[in-house]
Amino acid sequence: MIRGSFTELLIIALLAAFAATVPLIANGYWLSVCVTGMMYIALATSWSMFSGPTHYISLATAAFFGLGGYLLATGMSDYQQPFWLMLAIVPFTGAVLAALIGLATLRLSGVYFVIFTLGLAEMIRNLVSWIQNNFLGSRGLYVLTDYTEKHIYWMLLAVAATVYMLGWLINRSRLGFSLRIIGGDETVARHVGINTATAKVILFITTGFFGALVGGILAPRYSYIEPNQVFSPQLSFLVVIVALLGGSGRLWGPLVGVIPFTILWELVQTYFPNQTTLFLGVVFLVIVYFLPHGVVGRLEQILKQVRKRRS
Amino acid sequence: MMARTMLRVERVTKRFGGLVAVDGLSFDVNEREVLGIIGPNGSGKTTMLNMMSGAFKPSEGFISLSDRQISGKAAQTIARAGVGRTFQLVRLLPGLTVLENVVAGAVFGHRRQWGQSAKMMALRMMDRVNLNIAPNAPISELTYIDQKRVELARALCGEPNILLLDEWLAGLNPTELEAGIDLIKTLQDEGRTIILVEHVMGAIRSLCDKCVVMASGAKIAEGSPEHVLADPEVIRAYLGDEDE
User: Fold this and answer.
1) pLDDT, tens digit (0-9, with 9 covering 90-100), for A164-184
2) Three-class SS string for B177-208?
3) Residue A253 belongs to a domain
4) Do B76 and A193 touch (CB under 8 A)?
5) CA distances for A256 relative to A306, B101, B212, angstroms
6) Which among A172, A173, A191 is the top mutation candidate for probing chain B, defined by the most B β-carbons within 10 Å of its own β-carbon?
7) Residue A60: which domain range?
8) Between the CA atoms of A208, A214, A220 and A222, what dihedral angle is there, to the nearest 10 degrees?
9) Does the predicted TM-score (pTM) go above 0.95?
């Protein structure tokens, strides 16, 4: 009924403290890799909070991320608003978008939900491009700040730690238990008294909130923002792959998946820039065939077998 | 003293497109009464149960629980109002342990308990349905009757005012069937209000105070088990006419 121990939280706190020292050690290329890794940790952990227990695979991450980055850039570039004010606003726009998607998809599940979220993210990308091209002119959006990779990394670490803490608290609550029941059998969930719609929408809003926040934080990294870049559908797939590779059954699953994936992804992008999609496909096949419950699931399986043999 | 009506079904109809699955059905269930709903396959029994639990909304008519209308309300609202149920095909939560499956009823049901009190309630109900298995055992280790016991314990954990059992005895071997009937009998002895959808006539005879017989979505008989099971129209519905 209750998941997540205090020991787990302590280990995560120690890891976060260690992670905070990374910009003091690493710089240049490796710091850039760490920023990407921290972005995936924040996005995949918040994705797992909803999609992990419920098994609703959302491909809307790019929509939230893009909205965050694009709105922050619009506010700063077109309306000369300060970075921090825009960063305070964008998560709420992500939350509102998630609430709308959540309410629109209440009756959808399985593959229909997946396709809907992907289609919706693409629709938003095209809509934003169309608005920009037809009404705002082809001028670019610039996010010029004094924040460097180091600052972006720390901001992302703070968000990732907050997401993890929130997920830990949810796992220990009635809401967390209700999500696991929804993932098991939604009909049963309704018949034991769970308001499945409310539970799902609350968690989806959380995912939207943090997705937009991460998008806003990353905007200064790109400096020049255009819709096809921040709303890239590839991000939605990458987040799913990172979460599934680690194992979305546990809150710390994405943490396990993110390190090997980020390093591999960077290597593939550097040495095989034209084969990135092929690489993604292969990784996805490996997960589906050999690690259906992720690295964490496989480790738990091995531990169980060892314990059985001993007893 | 007049028995209080626990559940009232008034002229309830359910249509799926052109198919009338339940056709103007009416009956009452009094407090502490065990009502059996019987009828041949496809007669609309489970559809009726699904409307009582909120899985389906009636196309017409009303269902009320203790004089409060529940028809048309969401399943979770009806569950919290005090309607507990089991399913025709056992529905357990495979990723959860036995205890977690059972405790779900206590956490989200009628009284919405949490923590130690919910856990104690679940353990009590596991004991109540004679489920002798480690609370942390995975669901995959359960026998068929134990899976049914888990589902029943989950429903009881919600402390329902009325319990809907959809073919709870179906698929059990003779020994399990005897144990199953005895178990439901103990629930009846506690004074619980129960609606049974069943095909096992022995259980209907020994457990039910009253029966409603359905055929093609409509009620064809109502009364004591002895009375309805001897009704020629009921026999005809089950066995067909001689010349058919």
Assistant:
1) 999 999 999 999 999 999 999
2) HHHHHHHHHHHHHCCCEEEEECCCHHHHHHHC
3) no
4) yes
5) 21, 29, 58
6) A191
7) 6-233
8) -80
9) no
